[in-house]
C-alpha cells in the first residue's frame, strides 16, 4: 500500500500522470489494514486506552471493568458485523467501475475485521477468566 501511494504521488505531481484505479486500490487496502489492525490490537492489547481512573481502583474492580469492556467491545463488533453483512448483501454485487471488481471484495474487510475482533475479545475473556492472562491491567503497557 505504501509503495502504491508513493508511486501514485510521484507520478501525479512529478509527471502529471496517474495509474488507473490506484486511488481505489489504496482505499481498499487501507480498509483491510485498518480492519485487521483493530483485531490484532485487541489480540495484543495494544489499543489506546485512558487508564487514569481505572488504575486508581482496587484490582478486583479493574478486573470487572476489563471484563465489561471486553464484552462491550465484542458486542459493538457483533453489531457492526451484522450490519456490514446486510450492507454487502444490498450493495456488494455492484462493480467498482475503475477496477472492474464487485464492491463486496472491498466491503468484506469490515466483517472480517469485526469477526476477528469478536473472536479475540472472547479469547481474552476466556484466558483472563481461566487465569492464563491477567485481567485488569492497562492496555499498551511497556513490555
Give the domain tally: 1
Number of strands: 2
**Shape assignment:** elongated
Instruction: Estimate the helix proportion, in percent.
Output: 55-70%
| Distance, first to last CA | 29 Å
- Average the pLDDT over all residues and give the rounded result: 89
The biggest beta sheet, please?
2 strands, antiparallel
Q: Find the structural class using helix and strand composition.
A: mainly alpha
Enumerate the strands of the largest sheet in spatial order, edge to edge or round the barrel.
1-2
From the alpha carbons, calculate the radius of gyration and give it in angstroms. 20 Å
> Helical element count?
5
Explain this structure to me?
It is a single chain. This protein is an all-alpha fold. The chain has one domain (2-130). 67% of the residues lie in helices and 3% in strands. It has five helices and two strands, in the order αααββαα. It has a two-stranded antiparallel sheet with strand order 1-2. Helix 2 runs parallel beside helix 5 and helix 3 (59-91) runs antiparallel to helix 5. The radius of gyration is 20 Å and the shape is elongated.
Amino acid at each position: 500500500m505504501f509503495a502504491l501511494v508513493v508511486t501514485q504521488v510521484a507520478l501525479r505531481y512529478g509527471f502529471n500522470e496517474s495509474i488507473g484505479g490506484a486511488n481505489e486500490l489504496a482505499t481498499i487496502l487501507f480498509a483491510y489494514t485498518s480492519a485487521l489492525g483493530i483485531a490484532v490490537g485487541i489480540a495484543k492489547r495494544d489499543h489506546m486506552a485512558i487508564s487514569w481512573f481505572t488504575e486508581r481502583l482496587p484490582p478486583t474492580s479493574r478486573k470487572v471493568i476489563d471484563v465489561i469492556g471486553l464484552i462491550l467491545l465484542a458486542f459493538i463488533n457483533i453489531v457492526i458485523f451484522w450490519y456490514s453483512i446486510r450492507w454487502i448483501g444490498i450493495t456488494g454485487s455492484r462493480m467498482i467501475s475503475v477496477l472492474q471488481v464487485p464492491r463486496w471484495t472491498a466491503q468484506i474487510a469490515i466483517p472480517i475485521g469485526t469477526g476477528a475482533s469478536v473472536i479475540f475479545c472472547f479469547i481474552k475473556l476466556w484466558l483472563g477468566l481461566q487465569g492464563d492472562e491477567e485481567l485488569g491491567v492497562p492496555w499498551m503497557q511497556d513490555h
